[in-house]
Amino acid sequence: MAELTVKEQLARKRVCLALDVPTVQDALGLVAELSDCVGTFKVGKQLHTAAGNEGVNIVEEIHNRGGDIFLDLKLHDTPNTVYEASKACAVKGVYIFNVHVAGGEAMCRKALEGAYAGARASGTEKPKVIGVTVLTSLSDEDLTVQNLGIDYDNLVMRRTELAVKWGLDGIVCPANKAGELERRFGSDFLYVTPGIAWAGKHGTGQKQLYTPNMAVRDCRNSILVLGSAITKAEDRRKTACEILKAMAEEL
After folding, report:
1. Cα gap 198→164, rounded to integer Å
2. What are the tens digits of pLDDT across the range 138-175?
3. Angle 6-13/236-248 helices, nearest 10 degrees?
4. Secondary structure (3-state) at 207
5. 187 alpha-carbon distance from chain centroid
6. Which of 29, 73, 114, 247 is the most buried (most CB within 10 A)?
7. Continuous H helices in the chain
8. Any bridge partners for residue 131, and if so which?
């Protein structure tokens, strides 16, 4: 791939590749192949569990290869349990980890306390602690089935309000909602946005979709989570480069 332009370098910092693959070897292969056009790598429950089964410190392995990590474990438990889990998340290489806003104020505040404590213990900077608002795999119909009495957009808005109030560093939200949320809550707050599609490719479980160029046009402080759009492409590096160029045009 040709050397990135200044705007493409800025775009790269906002691209997070979802390592939703079954083995450590698969994940590290993607890191080696795409690290020059991807700023952050998302380690979710599938890979995190597989790495544990294989006896591999996946965060350390990715960090040693020059990658930052979004540890996507979606913590949602009692406040004390989340405190201890957050301490364990706050290690060198982890740039972001997340919790469910639905877990409540005490849990979210304990996550922040744990992040600070873990960072002090490991001698690193505190990771950003962000809140999952509503899963992008859900829709209004799904919320109706759960009898929540609120539609998707309003639930995202309400949980973002709570995340701000409780001191979280940002949220996970659909890319097509991030612009409106940023206008309301400001650009100092971080918006991590799954549901990014490119050339018709996206995760099969996603119902809230947007394109990379639209996402960066609408929101100044967002990180775009891409998975299948890149990993399932015939030419992954070429596709990643095309995505950076499209994003750069809007920066």
Report:
1. 31
2. 999 999 999 999 999 999 999 999 999 999 999 999 88
3. 110
4. coil
5. 17
6. 114
7. 6-13, 24-34, 45-54, 58-64, 79-89, 105-122, 140-145, 152-165, 175-185, 212-218, 228-231, 236-248
8. 99, 171
Angle, helices 152-165 vs 105-122, to 10°: value is: 50
Catalytic entry in 74, 92, 207, 245:
74
Confidence band for 200, pLDDT divided at 50, 70 and 90: low
* Residues 23-62: b if buried by 16+ CB within 10 A, e if exposed: ebeebbebbebbbebbbbbbbbebbbebbeeeebebbebb
pTM of the model: 0.92
Q: Quickly count: other Cβ atoms within 10 Å of residue 211's Cβ.
A: 20
Residue with the two structure tokens 């991807």? 38
Residues with Cβ < 8 Å from 154, sequence gap 6 or more? none
Residues with Cβ within 8 Å of residue 231, at least 6 apart in sequence? 17, 18, 20, 21, 30
Respond yes or no: is residue 7 known to be catalytic.
no
Neighbouring residues of 249: CB distance < 8 A, sequence distance ≥ 6: 7, 213
